[in-house]
């Protein structure tokens, strides 16, 4: 049977991306993705047809407008239509091509065969509806930060176990393993992300022992880790960080992304309260990524 989805499209100012994105995710949208459009952005999310009614979409429109206007941005434009899964899950693929990120990675659609580049690890992906093709600034910042954390130029890497919270397509988990991590726990609340990450592991010849994928959040990570990467939204990061005690080891590193520039101070304050020392803040477009180390006794 063909599955049909509501495609909900919101056009708004770039600065309103986080509020709209958050509202779409709370509403239950899958595959939320953003495109630049002549000075504004188009954010699209998808919900199975049977899960919601037109009245729900109308209510969503009111919430989004209230959220956006309350932050001082121009009112957004909301549109919706029913689409077949096949049509939208693959329509964007024509515009996605191999993309070098940082110094050591080449992100590549599963269906393309790029020329071999000996300097870069080839990371093949077929994300379907899950977030994470490597084209978004927040993902790129994490990939570059992973490259820094897993750099073995001057000394061999010690065994490194990582947690990828909000793995989406699995892009960060797979990159971490290609760059030398020993094991990654990848978790995401979305079942589509879990499927996409498992598909990504197979495409890159990564075993289920190296990349352990589970649906849910940080609670699914069964042991303390040496590094954590979390590209979700600032509001979610600030909620999750204080809960992570079972995952922490002194001196472990953390990469926090999905944060708008103006939210960096707020997230940094929460991290510091929880024993993290902020190392560097990397910026791209309106986004930033915080690199931190867990040093619970540094200020006490
Ligand atoms: C912006 S995407 C990041 C995907 C990928 N890691 C990347 O960097 O491209 C955020 C992901 O976090 C997931 N997510 C949202 N809230 C979460 C939570 N509390 N715990 C785990 N995953 C969550 C979403 O389903 C989504 O797949």
TrEMBL record:
Function: Methylates ribosomal protein L11.
HAMAP family named among the record's database cross-references: Methyltr_PrmA
Listed name of the protein: Ribosomal protein L11 methyltransferase
Record keywords: Cytoplasm, Methyltransferase, Ribonucleoprotein, Ribosomal protein, S-adenosyl-L-methionine, Transferase
One Gene Ontology cellular component annotation held by this UniProt entry: cytoplasm
Subcellular location per the Swiss-Prot or TrEMBL entry: Cytoplasm
GO process terms (BP): methylation
GO molecular function, one term: protein-lysine N-methyltransferase activity
Catalytic reaction list: L-lysyl-[protein] + 3 S-adenosyl-L-methionine = N(6),N(6),N(6)-trimethyl-L-lysyl-[protein] + 3 S-adenosyl-L-homocysteine + 3 H(+)
Positions of transmembrane segments: none
Domain of life: Bacteria
EC numbers: 2.1.1.-
Binding residues annotated for S-adenosyl-L-methionine, in chain numbering: 139, 166, 188, 231
Organism the protein comes from: Parathermosynechococcus lividus PCC 6715
């Amino acid at each position: 049977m063909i599955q049909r989805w509501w495609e909900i499209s919101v056009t708004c100012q770039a600065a309103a991306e986080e509020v709209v994105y958050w509202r779409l995710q709370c509403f239950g949208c899958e595959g939320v993705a953003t495109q630049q459009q002549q000075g504004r952005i188009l954010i699209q999310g998808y919900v199975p047809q049977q899960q919601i009614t037109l009245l729900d979409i109308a209510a969503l429109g009111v919430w989004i407008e209230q959220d956006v206007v309350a932050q001082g941005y121009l009112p957004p434009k909301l549109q919706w239509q029913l689409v077949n899964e096949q049509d939208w899950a693959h329509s964007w693929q024509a515009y996605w091509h191999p993309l070098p990120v940082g110094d050591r990675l080449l992100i590549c659609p599963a269906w393309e065969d790029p020329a071999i580049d000996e300097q870069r690890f080839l990371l093949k992906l077929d994300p379907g509806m899950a977030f994470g093709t490597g084209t978004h600034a927040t993902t790129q910042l994490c990939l570059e930060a992973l490259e820094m954390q897993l750099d073995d130029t001057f000394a061999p890497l010690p065994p490194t176990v990582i947690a990828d919270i909000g793995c989406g397509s699995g892009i960060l988990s797979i990159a971490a393993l290609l760059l030398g991590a020993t094991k990654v726990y990848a978790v995401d609340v979305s079942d589509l992300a879990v499927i996409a990450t498992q598909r990504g592991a197979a495409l890159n010849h990564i075993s289920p022992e190296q990349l352990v994928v589970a649906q849910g959040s940080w609670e699914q990570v069964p042991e303390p880790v040496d590094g954590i990467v979390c590209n979700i939204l600032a509001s979610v990061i600030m909620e999750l960080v204080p809960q992570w005690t079972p995952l922490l080891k002194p001196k472990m590193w953390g990469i926090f992304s999905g944060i708008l520039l103006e939210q960096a101070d707020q997230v940094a304050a929460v991290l510091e309260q929880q024993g993290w020392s902020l190392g560097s803040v990397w910026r791209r477009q309106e986004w930033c990524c915080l690199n931190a180390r867990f040093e619970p006794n540094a200020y006490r």
